[in-house]
Amino acid sequence: MSKKVPHRLYLSEEQMPKQWYNLRADMPNKPEPMLNPATLEPLKEEDLYPIFCEELARQEMDNTTRYIDIPEEIQDFYKMYRPSPLIRAYNLEKTLNTPAKIYYKFEGNNTSGSHKLNSAIAQAYYAKKQGLKGLTTETGAGQWGTALSEACAYYNLDLTVYMVKVSYEQKPFRKTVMETFGAQVIPSPSNTTKVGSEILEKDPNTGGSLGCAISEAVEKAVTTPGYRYVLGSVLNQVLLHQSIIGLESKIALEMLDEYPDIVIGCAGGGSNLGGLIAPFMQDKLTGKASPRIVAVEPVSCPSLTRGRYVYDFCDTGKVTPLAKMYTLGSNFIPSPDHAGGLRYHGMAPIISKLYHDGYLEAVAVEQTKVFEAAVMFAKQETILPAPESAHAIRVAIDEAIKCRETGEAKTILFGLTGTGYFDMTAYNSYLSNTMKTYIPSDEDLERGFSQIPKVDL
Amino acid sequence: MSKKVPHRLYLSEEQMPKQWYNLRADMPNKPEPMLNPATLEPLKEEDLYPIFCEELARQEMDNTTRYIDIPEEIQDFYKMYRPSPLIRAYNLEKTLNTPAKIYYKFEGNNTSGSHKLNSAIAQAYYAKKQGLKGLTTETGAGQWGTALSEACAYYNLDLTVYMVKVSYEQKPFRKTVMETFGAQVIPSPSNTTKVGSEILEKDPNTGGSLGCAISEAVEKAVTTPGYRYVLGSVLNQVLLHQSIIGLESKIALEMLDEYPDIVIGCAGGGSNLGGLIAPFMQDKLTGKASPRIVAVEPVSCPSLTRGRYVYDFCDTGKVTPLAKMYTLGSNFIPSPDHAGGLRYHGMAPIISKLYHDGYLEAVAVEQTKVFEAAVMFAKQETILPAPESAHAIRVAIDEAIKCRETGEAKTILFGLTGTGYFDMTAYNSYLSNTMKTYIPSDEDLERGFSQIPKVDL
Q1: CATH number 3.40.50.1100 given to B19-69+116-229
Q2: In this predicted structure, which of A177-181, B56-60, B162-166, B205-209 has the lowest mean pLDDT?
Q3: What is the pTM of this model?
Q4: CB contact, 8 Å: B94 with chain A?
């Protein structure tokens, strides 16, 4: 029998986690090491110092320390917008007429509009501590760029954001938000880097891509004294910082005498998913519990469900280290018809390994079904979800409907990563019935796979 | 000595107010009654039934009931997005190097992005309870329209929103948010009403105005069976519903053994201000405490600081009842140079009366100073404020700076009514130094005053 459950549960500041949880410590098979793109040798911590600041390089390589203290300065920043609420979706349950209990962890209550701030502030903090002058990064939809702008404003660090040119032009308001926080936002490809200039020379009218923006941001960082590069997803360090999502969720559920039968997260690069599932996956890895853990990706960019588990580059420009991950090939770019976020070609190595080893399931969903779920959710729960988050909503609704059919009162937890205020073009396309679903053909995928480097380890 | 203060304080559901507080009950001089525009006689409750639903008409006229129960259904809806946090602005205090303690009540954590939902859900509830089919309203910037769309979606009520045409064209995303919640959004003036058609005939290229949109929404409501009109500010009923803001704030401050020396709210129509100050004004009216209470308005639309306390229409089309209020004349429209919200020509009768009787102060601020405060606040507190809210931030900062100079550790409370995600055009104008400050000349004001009807009571 569970306790009386409030609509929204907030932990007190005393209850907030003071350590991040490093899922790798409990993985029987660790994620594969990254490779130096020149030598194809496994990278050492020091190899990362020109790109990442030292503490973050250390965290990136640390497969064994189970809990890592959250520095007090970061805890103080977290307290400005955290804890995020764990919300019981009473109205959605009622509308679905389901015996299931649906909970969601809502990470959108900050100006970045998403969970990205959890890692942005950590990365900015370590950069400041190392005495760096500034950071570079890339952004696509703009949530990560916004989060990092907020973090850099707080620590008075310079920030250069390479924003995919097509987004830069389509989302001028996102750009202004970043500029409000003092960031310099450059449409990518640009003439501020060698790699950008080369791409522009070949194709002056290109709209750019996330992979190209990564290449530019990395080049800018390694060629500017006192600068380093930071990334908002995929990396082990990012999943570490995002574990705050799952840790808070678990404490809140324990207060309610609840434990999830199913944990559902959307999966682009894997940052939210890896954070949300961390402590529940720990229980699964250590035999304490056996929740179903479900990654949801778009059918348009199906890295887990149709990708290959191989070494690949993290960027289109092929300047980054290689990571062993589920990938569609670093040149794979989903059709412009796909508006629903989660457009990255690969998947975090931690998530990839766990999926490969059978600890989590993956589901791919069509975007019109995703927006259908988003609109239903908005009407019932008063939150307008980001299209990315709505992937998880879709599967949570599907699972709740199954419960209605079987009569099972399962406890469902999903991650609501953010809000959709800057995605109204996509909503409009859905509402006006002009949204298309794009499913890559086997040939499309083969073209992507053919670009993957052949690496034997 | 005050208790250890968390960054964000959330009440538990048990602590949330179960009654609204009706400030009029404690006012020694009640606000003047509204007048029938045809007869200039004071309106009776029944006179309002064709426009408002009956329970709301009752609340509008009730000057004596001190506490009014919040129906359980509304309490349940409030629990989906409330309590809103009371936040201690530690970082802002540190940046300002002030001994003052700054608290703010943040109402932006819902999809409408503002406090407007507090009254929208109440008005939709009573309409549903009366068996109505739908509602009409107007919206300018779009926060009220969004809030009411959410509320009507929840109760499955039809909703027609007349959106000022210039906003409709400049803010297509706001429109899409409302449509996502199922509302019909019509640019005003339109050919769907008589008053709209007449205005269009005279000036086919007009961008519309809030006053015109009100006229259309009222006409549509009274000519459509099963429909009523609702308004998001100015009215007594709206201030009643918004008292939840002040009541929650007071309970939270009491938990911290705090009481504000100064309470600051931005003032457009007066809905947020009236709600925030309600229980503190009660203390002042009943002699229990004597906080300073400050209304902040833009110099571009200075209804309190330069307006007249007379009977005037609530709309440009002069179809509404007359209210005794501080007004600039119902034809006064601030210059398009003014981007910072709070563009209404009048002020809620309750606020007007209290100001007239000396219970509150008013300050007018320039919009570049407002945006300067907004950007500083965003960088320090991680929330991007709405331009409206930033008026209160400006004065809170000014008061905190005064404390630095005098060494006084005053407790300051201000209302952060909402977020600025849909106001990036204005932020961009500020950041690019193209924002102008508009101060109406005495002649400009005289033009507005000359349109005010001569009413002797």
Answers
A1: yes
A2: B205-209
A3: 0.94
A4: no
